[in-house]
């Protein structure tokens, strides 16, 4: 049974930092892209960042987080991270970790991701 478990969310002041972690079990995801999505109240789920599979040094960031967020992965630990800096109130959302449906596919659409974590709340106060 595949499980993705996020941790590291919380309440932080604007300008602060948080690091989210996503630990995967039940399957090795080294050949799959891993992404962080977020969903704010009343809004659609959107991709914040995604990172390619092992061996391809490639990542994609939404314009809204570019330069402030960094996604990384540790394949030995089957874990993906999202380092968030210079946080803004508009970053407030539930953040979800996701694993791609197809090996060696990298994309921004939620439909391309088959496995999802339960989400972790990030709240940025002004």
Q: SSE layout and pairings?
A:
Elements (H helix, E strand, L loop, with lengths): L2 E5 L2 E4 L4 E8 L8 E6 L6 E6 L7 E3 L7 E6 L4 E6 L8 E8 L12 E4 L3 E6 L1
Parallel strand pairs: 2-11
Antiparallel strand pairs: 1-3, 3-8, 4-5, 4-9, 5-6, 7-8, 9-10, 9-11
Structure characteristics:
seven-stranded mixed sheet, mainly beta, about 0% helix, four-stranded antiparallel sheet, about 130 residues
- Spell out the helices and strands N to C: EEEEEEEEEEE
Helical content stands at under 10%
Tell me the β content.
over 45%
Distance between the termini: 40 Å
Provide an overview of this structure.
The chain is an all-beta fold. It has strands at residues 3-7, 10-13, 18-25, 34-39, 46-51, 59-61, 69-74, 79-84, 93-100, 113-116, 120-125. The strands form 2 sheets. Strands 2, 4, 5, 6, 9, 10 and 11 form a 7-stranded mixed sheet that branches. Strands 1-3-8-7 form a 4-stranded antiparallel sheet, with no helix packed on it. A hairpin with a 4-residue loop joins strand 7 (69-74) and strand 8 (79-84). The mean pLDDT is 95.
Short synopsis of the structure:
With 126 residues, this protein is mainly beta. The chain is built from no helices and eleven strands. Strand 7 (69-74) and strand 8 (79-84) form a beta hairpin.
